[in-house]
Model the fold of this input.
Amino acid sequence: MLNLYNPLFLAQVTGFDIVLIIMIIVVVVVGGLYLLNRAAYKKMDEQQEMIDRSKQYATIYVIDKKHDKITNVNMPAMVMNQVPWYTKHIKMYFVKAKIGPQIVTLMCDKNVFNGIPVKKNVKAEIAGIYIVSFAGMKSAEEMKKIHKEKKKKQKEEKKEQKKKK
Done:
């Protein structure tokens, strides 16, 4: 029987044994992360299918946009009860909008949040309280290109103002 507290046992442990143990631990951790990743992708696919089934078009008037925690935004109690505990401390993107006679707070993705105009009517695809997209939505690459052009134009205007002075 092996006695792990025996000093002779510790003298018998070689560098190969240590490397082998470390390799086994690494393989177990990588395997666990792979399984978690597969489960997360399955869940994400199911949620995307649900969003695709329930989305509908609506004309909304965007009142305000916020990047804040869900606890700081005026959300219904039913929604707050369904939100997992770990997402209550994460900042998310919210849009306060008027749909018909009702003012509601909607959630959206970062791309939608950056592209949606404030104080304007927008035709949007909505699934529950989630804004999927809106009419005239530009891709991330188009938004970057527009942002670069704006910066370039601002620099040119500053140069012209300096020349006038």
Summary: The longest strand covers residues 56-69. Strands lie at 56-69, 91-99, 102-108, 121-127, 130-134.
